[in-house]
Design goal:
The protein is an all-alpha fold. The protein folds into 3 domains: 1-74; 86-177, no CATH class; 178-270, no CATH class. It has 8 helices and no strands. The chain is globular and about 70 Å long.
Length: 284
C-alpha cells in the first residue's frame, strides 16, 4: 500500500477498517467456492467424455464430439462424486496439517507488539516444519494409490455403467488383483508425464521469465506505477496460461487414453485374440 497514491491508500485503509470488508471477503470466498465447484463439474464432464471416446475409438475406430458430450453429461455427477470421495482423504490430511500454521497466523495478525510478532513467526515456522511438511509427505503417499483407484473407478462407471459405490468397489477389486501391472503402468505414465511437463514447460518458463524481465526493466526506466505493472503482468500471463493449458490438455488426454486402454485390457473388454475370425473359403 505504500506505493499507492495517497488518496487510494487512504480509501483502501478506510475500507479495510469498515464492516464492509468482512462482507466483501465473505462474498469473495463464496465466489471462489462457486467457481471451483463449476470447474470441478467441468473437469468431471471432460474426463467422462475422454474415457468414453477412447473406448469408442477402440470399438468403432472413430470419435464423435456429440457422443462424447452426451456421455459426459450422462456420467457427470457420478464422476464428480467419485473424484470428491477419493480426494477427501488427501484433503483432510493437508487441511489438518495446515491448521496449526493458519491458527498461529490468525492469532498474530495485525499485532503491533514486537514480542508477539516474533513469537508468532517462530510458531508459524515451527508449525510449517513440524506439521505441514510431514502432512504434505503423507498426503503425497496417500494420493498415489487413491489416484490409481480413482482412475479405475471412473472407468468402471463410464465403461461398465456401475454406480458410485459399486465403481469404487470394482476399482478396489481390480487394484488388488492386478497390483503389479498397475504399479508398473503408474510408474511409466508418471515418468512420461514428468518428462513431458519438463520438456514442454521449459520453453514456456524461459519465455515468461524474459517477458517479466522486460516488464520490470520498463518499470525501472519509465517509473511505472504498481497498477501498470499488474496490468502488464496480467496481459503477459493470459497467453502463457492459455499455452500452458493447451499443453496440459494434451498430456492429460494421453494419460486418460492410456488408463482407459489398460482398464479395457484388465477387464477383458476388448479383443483377446481368442475370437473365431471367419476365413475366406478356399478354392478347391
Amino acid at each position: 500500500m505504500r506505493n499507492l497514491p495517497p488518496g487510494m491508500r487512504d480509501g483502501l485503509a478506510e475500507f479495510l477498517e469498515s464492516p464492509y470488508y468482512v462482507a466483501a471477503a465473505v462474498l469473495l470466498a463464496l465466489l471462489v467456492l462457486l467457481v471451483g465447484f463449476g470447474l470441478a463439474l467441468l473437469g468431471a464432464l471432460g474426463r467422462a467424455a475422454m474415457v468414453d471416446q477412447a473406448h469408442a475409438s477402440e470399438e468403432r475406430g472413430r470419435v464423435e464430439v456429440q457422443a462424447g458430450w452426451q456421455a459426459g453429461k450422462r456420467y457427470l455427477w457420478h464422476v464428480f462424486l467419485i473424484r470428491l470421495l477419493l480426494g477427501l482423504p488427501t484433503f483432510v490430511v493437508v487441511a489438518a496439517s495446515a491448521l496449526p500454521a493458519v491458527g498461529a497466523s490468525l492469532l498474530t495478525a495485525r499485532q503491533d507488539q514486537p514480542e508477539v510478532v516474533i513469537s508468532g513467526l517462530f510458531t508459524v515456522t515451527l508449525a510449517l516444519l513440524g506439521c505441514m511438511l510431514p502432512g504434505a509427505c503423507l498426503a503425497a503417499l496417500f494420493s498415489i494409490p487413491l489416484n490409481v483407484l480413482r482412475s479405475l473407478a471412473i472407468r468402471a462407471c463410464v465403461l461398465e455403467g456401475y454406480a458410485v459405490r459399486d465403481s469404487v468397489l470394482r476399482a478396489w477389486t481390480m487394484l488388488r488383483e492386478h497390483v503389479g501391472p498397475l504399479a508398473v503402468l503408474w510408474l511409466i505414465l508418471a515418468g512420461i508425464g514428468i518428462g513431458a511437463a519438463v520438456l514442454l514447460s521449459l520453453p514456456l518458463v524461459l519465455v515468461t521469465a524474459a517477458l517479466v524481465a522486460l516488464v520490470w526493466l520498463a518499470m525501472a526506466m519509465a517509473a511505472l506505477s504498481p497498477l501498470w505493472l499488474l496490468a502488464l503482468t496480467l496481459i503477459i500471463g493470459l497467453p502463457v496460461w492459455l499455452v500452458g493449458s493447451a499443453v496440459h490438455g494434451v498430456v492429460e488426454t494421453f494419460l486418460s487414453a492410456s488408463w482407459t486402454l489398460a482398464y479395457r485390457e484388465l477387464a477383458e473388454m476388448g479383443l483377446t485374440g481368442a475370437e473365431n475370425v471367419p476365413t475366406a473359403p478356399s478354392d478347391v
